[in-house]
From TrEMBL:
Gene3D superfamilies hit by this protein: Collagenase (Catalytic Domain) (3.40.390.10)
Lineage: Eukaryota, Fungi, Fungi incertae sedis, Mucoromycota, Mucoromycotina
SUPFAM superfamilies linked: Metalloproteases ('zincins'), catalytic domain
Name of this protein: Peptidase M13 N-terminal domain-containing protein
Domain of life: Eukaryota
Species in which this protein is naturally found: Helicostylum pulchrum
Length: 113
């Protein structure tokens, strides 16, 4: 090896972290690398390909799916409220809570509309 390259190689290796924590972090990153892909062809697939198909990302998607399901359910409820009659709406939102006077408010709303 030429002297200049030898000097650069020594300097590069002297900056490499060899602590147990660095090894643990390196191992964690290594488990997500897809070694079946050429990094020059598809760097994202090479560096993250195994992570994208891992259980970890599926768990994150499950949380997003729960949010999407709740949002879709809420939207369906709103659409059914808008398509229904006033009487159907008051039946749906009826409560036994003494602090909420839906029947009184329904009578007032009927007079206004």
């Amino acid at each position: 090896m030429p002297p200049a390259l030898s000097l650069l190689a020594r300097q590069a290796t002297s900056n490499v972290c060899t602590t147990p924590l660095c090894h643990a972090i390196g191992n964690e990153f290594a488990q997500y690398v897809n070694l079946n892909v050429d990094p020059c062809s598809d760097f994202f697939e090479y560096s993250c390909g195994a992570w994208v198909t891992s259980d970890e990302i599926e768990t994150e998607n499950d949380a997003a799916d729960v949010y999407a399901i709740n949002a879709r359910h809420s939207l369906q409820n709103i659409i059914s409220f808008l398509n229904g009659t006033f009487e159907e709406l008051t039946e749906i939102i009826k409560t036994d809570d003494a602090g909420v006077h839906t029947q009184d408010k329904a009578e007032i709303d009927k007079k206004i509309s």
